[in-house]
Structures are given as C-alpha cells and as structure tokens.
Amino acid sequence: MWKLLLPAIVTILVAGAPPCARAGDAVGSLAPYEDLLEVLAPLTWHLNDDLYRYPPPSDPTGHDLFQLSLARLDGWEKRYPSNFRDITMFARAEALERMGEYQKATDAYRQVASASGSPLADAARTNANRTATFAEAAAMPEDGDDLEKQLSVLRKKLDAWGKIVDQQAGTPYQSFALVEEERLERITSGLVVEHRRLINKGDETAERALRFLIEKHAESKKLPLHILRLGDLYAALAHDYADAHERPLSFKEEDFIARTDRALDVYRKVATWDGVKEKPEGQARFAALETYKTNTLARYR
Amino acid sequence: MRRTVLILLLAVASWSRAGTLLDESSQVDPQAVDVVRHAAVHALLAQPTPLADDAHDVEALDRSRRDRGLAPTGLADDVRLLAAGLRPTRDARRDALEEVLDDDPDPAVERFARYALEHEDDAGAADQLLADDRHNRRASIVNDAIRPLGVFSGGVLLAAVNPFLAAGSALDSVVTTAVNLYHYNDLSPREREALVRYRRQLAKDPDTQAAPDIVDTVRSINAKRTEAVCKDTVSAAEKALDAKDLDAARFYVESAGRLPGCDDKVAKVRDKVSEALAIRSTRTEAARWPADDLELPEGDERADYEAVATATVLGDPARMMEAAQRFTQRHDDSDHERSVTLVVGVARDLAGNRDGARDALDSIASKKSETGRTAQAMLDDPRFNGLDPLDAAERRHAGDVAKYVLIGGGPTGRSAIYTAAQLGAEGASAAQTLGIFNVIGMLTRAWSAWRNDPASNQAIIDEGEQFLAREPDSPDASDVHERLATAYERAGHYDRALLHYRAVANPKSSRIEKLEGKIADQLLENAKKDGGEPVLLAAIVRYYPDSDAATKAREALEKLPKPGAIPLSRDTLVAHPALLGPSGLDLDPKLLDGDRDNGELGEAGVTVLPGTLELSLRSHTGGDDYTERRPISPEAYTRARAAAEDALYASVLVKDPRDPEIGRFEKYIPVYINGSLGESGVAITPGIKMRRDNSEDRALYQ
Predict the structure, then answer these.
(1) Does A217 lie in the same domain as A147?
(2) Phi-psi region of B386 (alpha: psi -120 to 50; beta: other; left: phi over 0)
(3) pLDDT at B25 over 60
(4) Are residues B330 and B444 in the same domain?
(5) Which site among B115, B583, B637 would you substitute to test the A interface, given the most A Cβ atoms closer than 10 Å to its Cβ?
(6) Residue that finishes a domain, picked among B505, B526, B547
(7) To bridge B524 with a disulfide, which of A87, B253, B477, B549 should be the other Cys (CB 3.0-4.6 Å)?
(8) Measured on CA atoms in the order A38, A44, A45, A49, is the torsion positive or negative?
(9) Nearest in space to B76 (alpha carbons), one of B103, B96, B98, B115
(10) Cα torsion for B162, B166, B167, B173, to the nearest 10°?
C-alpha cells in the first residue's frame, strides 16, 4: 500500500513547496521591479545609437523602441506612482531627447535634477543644459511670409544647429544635431526646387542645392531619399521639356532622351541599392519614368 | 515501514516551514530593491563597471536567499542584460548576451537577448545568412538530382517496364545537376543581405576581432555583386533589344559601360544596339522623302490623278470616290491604279463603309509595293481587325490551359540547355500518358485548372479593354463586356468582372449575385488578414447584405472590442496573475482559482472600459457565462489600462518567434519525405530541408 501512497505524497509535497523560480522569473513582490528593468534594458542598450547614420531602433515586435519605452514608462508610473520616480523620469527624458522632443526632455531632466538625494540629479542637470540648448535651436521659427524671408529664417536656424554640431563633435549627441541640420537643409533645398521657376537660373540652383545635400549628408541614413529627390528634379525637367515642346516639330528626341536618361540613371542608383528601404520606391519611379519615356517617344515617331 | 513514516514526518515538517517561506518571499526584499535601483541608475548613467558589480550583487543576494531557503530574486538575468548593453565592443556584447541566454532567463529577457544577437549583431547575423545560403545551395543540388530520377516516385513501376522513362529521368537529373552546379556561385539575396550587414558592422564597430575575416568576405561578395549588377544590366539591354525598345536598350548599354569591369561584357550588345539604331535612323530618314523612282502621270492621266490627289488632301469622301471612279474608268491600265484603289479604301472608311474599305484595301495589300504595304498597315489597324486580337488572345488562353492539363506546368527555362533537357525528359515522361499515374496527374491538373485558372488572362483583358476604349458604342461592345467579365472572374478580379457584367445588354441576376458573393468573400478574406478590419467588415454588411460573407462579417463585427476597450482573456490573466493585483485590475484572485462557488472568470475574462470593468463570469449552475459590470474610478481605470497594456505587450513579446514549420530535431536531421498527389501523379520524394529566409527585408535584397 505504501508503494502506492508514496508517489502521491511526494507529488503533494512538491506542489506545496516554495515556488522554485527559474533564474529569470522574479518572485512575486519583485515583479514590478523586473518589469522596470525590462523596460530600461532595451532603452539603455540603444542610448548611444547614431540616429543620423542608422534608423531608430525597434523592439522584437517591430515597434519604434523609443516610443514604446516612453509608453511603457508611462504605464509603469501610472501603476506605481511613488516608486523610483527619478529613474523613470530620467529614462523618459532620454527617450524624449532621442525622439527630438528637446523641450519635454529638458523639463523631465530638470524634474530629476530638483529631486533631492537622487544619484541621477547631477547627470540630469548636465543633460538639461544640453537639451535646453537643443530646445532653443529647435524652437527657432522655420516659416516666413515669402520665399526670401523663409530662406533667411532657415539660414539662421541652420547656423544655430551648425554651432551645436560643432560643440557636440565626438559625443553621441552630435548625431541628434546632424539629424536636425539635415532636416532643415532638406526643407531649404525643397523650397528651392519648389520655387525654381521664380528664381534666376532656378533649375541649376535647384540641382546644386540637391547635390549639396547629397554630398554633405553622404553618411546619412536618408541619403537614398535625397538621391531620389534629385531624380525627381531631373524627371520634372524631362516632363517640363515635353510639355514645353508638345508640337512635333519643336520636339527634339535627343534633348528629351538626355533629360529622361539623367533621371533614370539617378533612380537606378536607388533601385539597385541593396538593403535600403527606398529601393522599391526607386524601382517604381524608374519603371514609371521609363514607361513615360517610351510612350512619349512613340508619340513623336 | 519505520523509514517511510520518518520520511512522511519530515515531509510534514517541511510543509509547515514552506508556509513561512512563502510568507517571507512574498514580502518586498529591501536589499533586492536597492540592487534594482543601483542597476537602473548605473545603466542610465552608462557606468559599465558599477553595473557589472550590481550584477555580482544580485548573484550574491540570490545565493544568500537560497541559503535561507528562499527562491532567488529572478532579477539576475535582467541586470545582466542591462550590463551587456554597456559593453564597449561587439565581441564583449556577444559574449555577455550568450551568458544571459545560458542562464535560463525569463521569456522577455530571452526574446530581447536573441533579438539583439540576431538583429543588432550584424556580423553574427550575416554569418548565419551565409551558412543558411550554403546549406540551401547544397540541398538544392541534392534534391534536384534525386527528384527527377523517379526512383522514389510512383513512376518507378512504369519505369521498370519502360526504359524511356528511366532514360528521361536520368537525363533530367544529370542536366538539372549540371545547371545547378553552373549556377552554384550566383549571387543570392542572402549574400546581398550579408554584404550589407557586414559593411554596417564594420562601420559601427571596426575593432571587432572578426574584422579581418569580415573584410575578406566583403571583398569576395562585393566582387560577385559587381559582376551580378553588370550581368543584370547587360541582360536588361538584351531584353530591351529583343522587345525592339532601342531607347531603353541604349540606356542600359550606356549604364553598363559605366560599371566597373563591365565595358567589355556589354561590347557585343552595344554593337547590336548601335546597328539597330543606325537602321532605325536610316528608315526614319528615308520615310521623310518620296520614293526615288517616282513616276508622275502625264497628259489626261495627270489631270485626273491631280483631281484624286486634291480630293484626298481635302478629305472629302464623296469627291474622292467621284475622282477615283473617273480615274479608273479612263485609265484602267495605269500604273497608278493601285494608289487610286488605296484612295477608294480611305474614302469608304471616311464615309463609314468599313467593310467596303476593307475589301478595297484587301485587293491591293501586299509586301511588294509601297502602296501595298500602306494598305496592309491600314488593315492591321485595330479599326479594321476589330475583335481579331481578342479572339486570338482567347484562343491562346484556351491552348495554355489545355497544355497545362495535358502535360503540366512544363519547363521554367533557366537556360537553353536546361530547357532542352527538360523538354527531352518531359517527352520521355509523355510515354506515361496511358499509365495510371499520368491519368491521376492529368485529373489533378484538370481539377486544379477548374478551381484556379493556370493561364494568364492578361492578354484577353488588355485586348478587350483596348477595344472598349476605342469603340465603346460598337454593336460588339456587350459581347466584349461579357468576355471581359469572364476573363476578370477567372483572374480573380471579381470587382472588375462585376463592373463589366453589369454593362452587358441583358445581364442575368443570378450571375450578378454570384459575382457579388465572390467579392464579399474576397473582402472577408482581406478583413481577416488585417486581424478583423472593421471598415471592411462593415462594407461587406452594407454592400452585400444577402451574401454568406455578410453573415460572417456581422458575427465578426459583434465580436470586435468596443472603442477604448481592452479585452483580457482568461488565458492572459492566468499567464499574468499580477494583473489582478492592486496595481492592476484590483480583483479578487479567487476569480481564477477554479471554484465556481466563489466566482470564476469565464474564457472572455475581463474587459477594461472607461469607468467600468466588464467581467465575464462562469455560471454557478453550469449554464452560459454571464457578464457583470463593476464601476471603477478614473484613477483605477488609468492603472488598470496601463497594467492591461503592459500584459498584452508582454504576451506579444514572449510569443515564440520560431517558425512553426521548423521541426524540433531539424537542426540535427534536416531531412523530409514529401508525399504528393500532384501534377506529376503520385510521388514520394525524400530531400534535404531548405532553410527558410526569414529576413524581414527580403524584398530589399532581390
């Protein structure tokens, strides 16, 4: 009978024993702290990422890591409002800074800096000074009543960011400033392209502006995008030529081919560029322009 | 007996102590909280050395807890993961991650650590890509060599009595293997991805120990890639030349000429393109001038000819006909009679007499004279050949379907030799026509062709659409709409099919209903793919209310969560028991203890709504589950929502990311046996399992 009872007793004892957690499962009371560490781990893993050269990191589910971390920190603060406030606030500031929300980041850093006894206070103060400079530049206007004024406003803002780029040289934060500088230069070149008909030698100026962007930001993650935009300008010039020479006798085949081929060449660079997200876009634009070229030439033959 | 009683007593003693230990472990350990705080601070301040000390502190704490009979904190893996991120080099991070994974981490840490190894260690991921690529190349050679032999297929029975079959299969196997070996070193998408990832690794971390090896590999793949880009460009030029698109061909030739080491390879195509362009230029130039040997009519004939020419220039059909008739009556043996007949054709067409115009043009069409060529070109114009291209496209389609049913999909044609070999093998296999296996194969293909059209309908669609664009009011328009509806339906474009069928002169309501049903089914399928897209589901209910799909869509809509609601199933709550605690839903844990008498949550669990918790509870009497609504304060809702979102995220995060197709022991025994009843009859084929390309960015490396 004991032979039958013993296994049952052992089973009961094992079931009633204290929970034997695997190395990675926090015991019940420590679960919230485990949750927090699991939010912080991926975030801190990416704090020194070069966001100018590489795309923002994502988590294993494919979400933007900084946005996700921010949301999860929010959730944690809602559930445990009185715990580790300086840590969650500091982490929020780090995420906000990397998302380009410099003023919000500054506010968050300042809250940590003012928290008495926090080991993060000094670092928060230093970071707040940095992000405040970033926020000041970011707050400068970008709009103007007309093209001239807008370009002048953008120039001032670019100067401000240029100084920050120099100041932050050799730090991980330079990449944030480069992102801003690139964004503003993209807007500026976009304006020139958009208003090229109003500018003296507008086509050449627009081309120069886009080529400058490409050369200056040759290491940027957005380089394929800049190249596509140069292709768009060349394609627009080809369309302009065809529109301006619609009558058959004024249409010169070789002139039209030279313009389309220049655009096709540029699109093809992106269309054959392995691993960049813009590759399908380059392929589609190449195919669309190639079809346009064939159809247009067929019309005049 | 005594010994057993002693064990039992000891066990009871341990039981009573376990209760105390449980109490102790349920209290917050201030030492553990301190360690967490230090680790978090050091991680945020990017201080690797103190963080490494924190990791040791957690380990020490866990040891001390074990000594006291308590469970370890379970935080060691989290702190180690934090510390791994601060390691300065790729090699150190890799080692640290491996250590984390070796120590049985919790699922969330494990998932992140694996993700970091696979996605953030580019060189490691690239190594794996190349290993998989090598495996697949070898497997492909072995599989393709075995498959056609038929040794393992149903055809073996016939092969025994039919030497043609054995010879065909052997030939197929040998040539397929030769072709595979010829292509063995072709650049693959995996190699392209590996090249990108190696380069990124070098840019991010040039000091990694693996750098020399990486540089060698990059150099070798890069050479292959340069060659592949050249080959693709030359091939694009050849294709454009074959399609007589000389402008495109010239573009690709010039592009290839600018690629490193490609100038010689494109030379041959360049010559062909130059020659074709010169011919085109000469023809274009020649077409601008009248024929050199033009002989103008003289005397009376000249006056009548001028009258015909004048009427033609004016484009007046009546005058053209009158002048042409006068010319024919007076100069029926003139050399210019054919030109005048051409004018008659044009005049009849301008007057709307297309049949008469066709007769006139037919009478002079030939390739021997300029007039005859002009007449032929006019006859080839769509306005004269009407539905001919559509008829031809339909005939081609029917032929393609018949070919598929009778002899299968046929060769894919990677090269001339491969195609020829495949045709030879197919020819030998055709000897099986009287065999049972081919009959089965044929029936299978017929069934498959009936369910899904194996041939392309695009040519029919193109010709039909062009006809309708050209002649929307033609008496044949209704017939063309119906034929287009059929083609679109076969191609699975039910919306276009319906559009055309509605334009048919007397559409049958039953067919319209059938097409509407198919559209609704397709929409429902799409809605399911998007995880129950409510807009699509509502569209099905609204536009196709009587279809079966609408019934299913209504049911799906009813099951969808209300706006702002977060449903938490019983399974989710069981997996995350902390959700029921005060920092979450603040519900009694007894709701999950399995006892219906003290209240038990049903499968639908709890739904968090603004101001309300909706509890699905099991009935005491064993009947259907019922719903209980409990009001909650805004603060409680905020807390519950945050907890629910976190739990749902954790559920998604720890979902096993491994491919369900990959077997447990596949790493060690990557062999499969495939049994099929398909196009080639019954087949049982062994093979080496290929490794699937799971790259998220596959399309970017094609």
Answers:
(1) yes
(2) left
(3) no
(4) no
(5) B583
(6) B526
(7) B549
(8) positive
(9) B103
(10) 160
Query: In this structure, is residue B198 part of a structural domain?
Result: no
Cβ contacts below 8 Å, chain A against chain B, sum to: 224
Any idea what the Cα angle at residue B201 is, between residues B195 and B202, rounded to 5°?
90
Query: Is 70 exceeded by the pLDDT of residue B535?
Result: yes
Residues B522 and B623 in one domain: no
Query: Distance between CA A31 and CA B63 in Å, rounded?
Result: 19
Task: Tell me: pLDDT of A169 over 50.
Answer: yes
The answer to whether B287 faces chain A, any CB pair under 8 Å, is no
Find, in chain A, the residue whose alpha carbon is nearest to that of B701: A274
Has residue A178 been placed in a domain? yes
Average pLDDT on B390-398 reads: 90
In a domain, B91, yes or no: yes
> Would you state the structure tokens that stand for residue B576, as one six-digit string?
């995350």
What residue in B sits closest to A92 (Cα-Cα)?
B44
CA distance A199 to chain B (A): 32
**Token reading at A145:** 């009543």
Q: DSSP alpha helices (H): ranges in B331-476? A: 337-350, 354-364, 370-380, 382-385, 388-407, 416-429, 436-451, 458-470
Residue A131 has pLDDT above 80, yes or no: yes
pLDDT of residue B659: 64
For residue B658, being part of any structural domain is answered with no
Residue B367's pLDDT is what?
79
**With an 8 Å Cβ cutoff, are B78 and A17 in contact?**
no
Name the pLDDT band for B692 (thresholds 50, 70, 90): confident
Q: Is A36 part of a structural domain of the chain?
A: no
The C-alpha atoms of residue A189 and residue A205 are separated, in whole angstroms, by 9
Q: Is the pLDDT reported for residue A43 higher than 50?
A: yes
Domain hosting B610: range is: 566-653
Predicted local distance difference test score (pLDDT) of residue B164: 63
Rounded mean pLDDT of chain A? 90
What is the structure's pLDDT at B360?
92
Helix, strand, coil content of chain B in percent (nearest 5): 70, 5, 25
How many structural domains does chain B have?
5
Close Cβ partners of B280 (under 8 Å, ≥ 6 residues apart): B246
Option in A18, A25, A29 nearest B18 (CB): A18
Domain shared by B344 and B243, yes or no: no
Same domain, B407 and B519: yes
Query: What is the spatial distance between Cα A89 and Cα B96, in angstroms, rounded to a whole number?
Result: 28
The closest CB to that of B578, out of A31, A71, A78, belongs to: A31
CB B253 within 8 A of CB B266: yes
Closest by CA to A16, choosing from B267, B15, B446, B514, is B15
Distance from CA of A200 to the nearest CA of B (A): 32
Whether the complex's predicted ipTM surpasses the cut of 0.95: no
Question: Does B75 reach chain A within 8 Å, measured CB to CB?
Answer: yes
Could you tell me if A47 and A121 lie in one domain? yes
CB A25 within 8 A of CB B107: no
Within-domain flag for A287: yes
Q: Is residue A30 a part of any domain in this protein?
A: no
Chain Cα centroid distance, residue A66: 11
- A123 shares its domain with A164: no
In sequence order, what E strands does chain A have?
none
**Host domain of residue A234:** 223-301
Taking only the tens place, the pLDDT of each residue in B428-457 is 454 444 444 456 666 777 777 777 788 889
Q: How many helices (H) and strands (E) does chain B have?
A: 30, 6
Alpha carbons B504 and B491: distance in angstroms, whole number: 19
Domain end: A123, A139, A155, which one? A139
List, as ranges, residues 210-229 from B with C-beta within 8 Å of A.
225, 229
Residues of B in contact with A76 (CB under 8 A): 642, 646
pLDDT at A32 over 70: yes
CB < 8 Å to A272, chain B: 229, 232
Q: How far is B470 from chain A (nearest CA, A)?
A: 17
